[in-house]
Structures are given as structure tokens and as C-alpha cells.
Recover the amino acids of this structure.
């Protein structure tokens, strides 16, 4: 799946991340998500979440509470 970096959802998320944590990175991901299903139905979709992808689905998977709080603030800004 691919969404243009100029798409409104990407720009909104980028702005929200910058507002909350001061930096953002727009990049492709080399893993599978359900986002491709939405994109295949012309629903522009991005993948976003707190934590370190290197820890995902491992025995030591966790996120810091401040990462969770920041993610909630970012999502709130995107939806406003």
C-alpha cells in the first residue's frame, strides 16, 4: 500500500506528531497491517502507534506510559 506524503491524512498526522513530540518521520514500513485492506477500498490509511517496532511481538514487548499518553494526544489532534 502507498499513500502520498502530500495526502491530507499524512500532513495532519505529521503536524500532530510535531506539535506533541517535536519531531516526526514519514517512512515506509516493512511489515503487514490491515491498512492495506482500507487502502484497497480507496480509504487513505496510515499506520501510527507508540513504542518501538523492534519490540513488537517479542517476549519483552512494552511501551512507556509517556509514549501512550503522547500517542493519545496525537490522535486527538488529528481528529479535531
Amino acid at each position: 500500500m502507498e499513500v502520498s506524503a502530500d495526502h491530507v491524512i499524512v500532513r495532519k498526522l505529521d503536524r500532530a506528531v510535531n506539535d506533541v513530540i517535536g519531531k516526526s518521520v514519514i517512512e515506509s514500513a516493512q511489515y503487514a497491517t490491515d491498512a492495506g485492506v482500507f487502502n484497497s477500498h480507496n480509504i487513505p490509511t496510515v499506520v501510527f502507534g507508540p513504542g518501538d517496532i523492534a519490540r513488537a511481538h517479542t517476549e519483552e514487548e512494552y511501551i512507556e506510559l509517556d509514549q501512550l499518553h503522547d500517542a493519545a494526544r496525537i490522535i486527538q489532534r488529528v481528529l479535531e
User: Anything to note?
Assistant: Helices lie at 8-21, 35-40, 65-79. Residues 8-79 form a domain with the DNA polymerase; domain 1 fold (CATH 1.10.150). The chain has a mean pLDDT of 91.
